[in-house]
Write a structure and sequence with these properties.
Layout (H helix, E strand, L loop, with lengths): L1 H11 L2 H24 L5 H24 L4 H11 L8 H28 L7 H40 L5 H27 L13 H22 L11
Pfam family, one: PEX11
Protein name: Peroxisomal membrane protein 11C
Organism: Xyrichtys novacula (Pearly razorfish)
């Protein structure tokens, strides 16, 4: 028990770790709140609790938006460090990653403007800026999924080659990397489904998700992020946007 508490405290002491915990709580609250609110047979107290959880989820989401006001420089440092991906062996992975970094970098100023417009700090309509944020987020997610699929394909080829050559010492490491990419695909698909839901009505299933389903998809991707952070032991690494 004490070790679990210490591990949680260690995660909360880092910005990325705290953000992942807040994100998980945000979507988890939306999931439970959405389930309680939609039950027609539920009593008044359950429906009231459901509405309170949805309000709590909205406040946590707003909290994360405010905290992201300070993410531009860390994202810029990560993009500059990656550059044009000269260390990548595969050209496909390299250019997908570069485009992914561009989408992520553009996301932050657009979100800042949308937030400032909602807060009436500037005179602007926030709707078009939030739509642009959703487009950039969806683009980033789609590129991330494509990148993971490409990396997964390359890892499978490398694994088959080493199996033919009889080199079994690194099989476990390759399989661990493949599981990591599979988790990334699952998390990215869950987030992408929500990104499409937040697009204007008429685009695929935009606007059709109930609160509980949005919460479920977000919770799945958040849990995937926590698992990856735990296995990597690097909670300060700047990766794709996690709205």
């Amino acid at each position: 028990m004490q070790q679990s508490v210490e591990a949680l405290v260690k995660v909360l002491e880092t910005y990325r770790g705290r953000d992942k915990i807040i994100r998980t709580a945000c979507y988890g609250s939306q999931l439970v709140g959405g389930v309680l609110s939609r039950k027609e047979e539920a009593d008044v107290s359950s429906q009231r609790l459901g509405k309170s959880l949805l309000l709590f989820s909205a406040q946590l989401s707003h909290c994360r938006t405010v905290l992201r006001l300070f993410d531009d420089l860390s994202m810029l440092a990560y993009s500059q460090g990656y550059g044009f991906g000269g260390r990548e062996e595969d050209a496909g992975v390299r250019w997908i990653s570069v485009l992914n970094n561009v989408a992520d970098q553009l996301y932050y100023p657009c979100e800042h403007i949308a937030w400032a417009a909602d807060a009436e700090l500037i005179k602007a309509k926030s709707d078009k800026w939030w739509l642009l944020c959703t487009l950039l987020w969806g683009t980033s997610l789609l590129l991330g999924i494509l990148r993971s699929l490409r990396v997964l394909l390359l890892l499978k080829k490398k694994l088959r080659k080493r199996e033919r050559d009889g080199g079994g010492s690194s099989h476990s490491q390759l399989r661990r990397q493949m599981r990591g990419e599979l988790l990334s695909i699952i998390g990215g698909m869950a987030d992408l489904s929500n990104a499409i839901h937040w697009m204007p009505p008429g685009f695929l299933w935009a606007g059709r998700f109930p609160n509980w389903l949005v919460g479920l998809m977000g919770t799945v991707s958040s849990v995937v992020g926590l698992i990856q952070m735990s296995s990597n032991g690097d909670s300060d690494h700047t990766e794709s946007i996690e709205s």
